[in-house]
Design a protein that fits this description.
By secondary structure, the protein is an alpha+beta fold. Helix content is 55%, strand content 12%. The protein has 10 helices and 7 strands. It has helices at 7-22, 25-33, 38-50, 68-81, 87-97, 172-204, 216-241, 248-274, 284-297, 302-315; strands at residues 108-112, 119-120, 127-131, 136-147, 156-166, 206-207, 210-211. The strands form 2 sheets. Strands 1-3-4-5-2 form a 5-stranded mixed beta sheet. Helix 1 packs parallel to helix 4 and helix 7 (216-241) runs antiparallel to helix 8 (248-274).
């Protein structure tokens, strides 16, 4: 099975990276932390103009009609840029849950019990949903209470609602699995960005008259991080290809677990080679460190995903990850 991106998929990734670089995402993230969503919404509109906000929706509903692989490609680029906002909810979870959704630039977020108990950026979102295996609802008459978050750009809110509208025909399991997979892709992007920052840093920082990156111990740490990230990549691709099979949940969990652990190792390595400067909130690395720590525990903890994989393998130990 080949996991290399096709030319069109790679072009899409390159276009997104160029757009996000030009948009100055670090400045957008700083504004987002303070509750100022103006520049973020301009970028979201630009993504809508490219069709990204309707990526997986069918063409008859104004979407691009692309698949899960393209979804993971986009979310990986968002992770590489450290783009804040409810992108997993808007692009992965809710398009699968809302059968009549048409392509637009509406910002949507959700509470997903028990794994996402607080709605991300609910005060800046246009629509807030409560999703679960039993039913999914669009909430109305909202009362929001801000709660603490390890990542300042992940603005979490406890949501109380006076009313709501049921979403008929919602496929919660598929939506949740796509969100888990989207989170894995985002984490992979975070990991690669932190590795690039660390590599750039050790190339320029000198000790004993030599770049730090020339020391064998530093090379080994960075190589181990790259190895972890590269082993996570085919699990994400395989899970994307298996998204419509009976093993979608197991494969999404395997991808999330591998990507989360790879990004976590890369974060620790990047922080170690940066030294004390990496702890400072002013340094660009800090954005990616805090986001990695938060997302590793979101959309299911590592322990929960391990149990889910073990339960699936106990009933079917023969089917490999990512197999149709």
């Amino acid at each position: 099975m080949r996991f290399v991106l096709e030319a069109e998929q790679q072009d899409m990734a390159d276009t997104l990276r160029s757009l996000l670089t030009t948009a100055d995402v670090p400045a957008i993230a700083r504004s987002w932390v303070d509750g100022d969503g103006e520049e973020w919404r301009k970028l979201w509109q630009s993504l809508g103009d490219l069709g990204v906000t309707g990526l997986t929706l069918p063409e008859e509903r104004g979407g691009l009609g692309l698949g899960t692989v393209e979804l993971t490609v986009c979310l990986q680029e968002f992770g590489y840029a450290g783009l804040p906002g409810p992108v997993v909810e808007s692009l992965a979870l809710l398009p699968a849950l809302l059968p009549d959704l048409t392509a637009d630039t509406v910002v949507r977020t959700a509470v997903v019990e028990p794994h996402v108990p607080c709605a991300l950026d609910a005060d800046l979102a246009d629509e807030v949903y409560a999703c679960g295996p039993g039913a999914s609802r669009r909430l109305t008459g909202l009362s929001l209470q801000r709660t603490d978050s390890f990542d300042p750009a992940r603005r979490l809110f406890e949501v109380a609602a006076a009313g709501g509208e049921d979403v008929p025909g919602a496929d919660f399991e598929r939506g949740f699995d796509l969100a888990v997979l989207g989170c894995a892709a985002y984490l992979l992007g975070l990991g690669h960005r932190m590795l690039d920052l660390a590599t750039e840093h050790v190339t320029h920082r000198q000790q004993f008259g030599r770049p730090v990156g020339e020391f064998q111990a530093v090379k080994h740490h960075l190589a181990n991080a790259l190895l972890k990230l590269e082993f996570a990549r085919p699990l994400i691709r395989g899970a994307a290809l298996a998204a419509d099979t009976a093993h979608a949940g197991r494969d999404a969990s395997a991808a999330k677990l591998a990507a989360g652990e790879a990004a976590h190792l890369t974060a620790r390595t990047a922080l170690q080679v940066h030294g004390a400067i990496g702890y400072t909130a002013e340094h660009d690395l800090h954005r990616f460190l805090t986001k990695t720590a938060a997302l590793r525990q979101s959309w299911g903890t590592p322990a929960w995903h391990r149990r889910r994989i073990a339960a699936a393998l106990s009933t079917d130990p023969e089917t490999p990850i990512g197999s149709p």
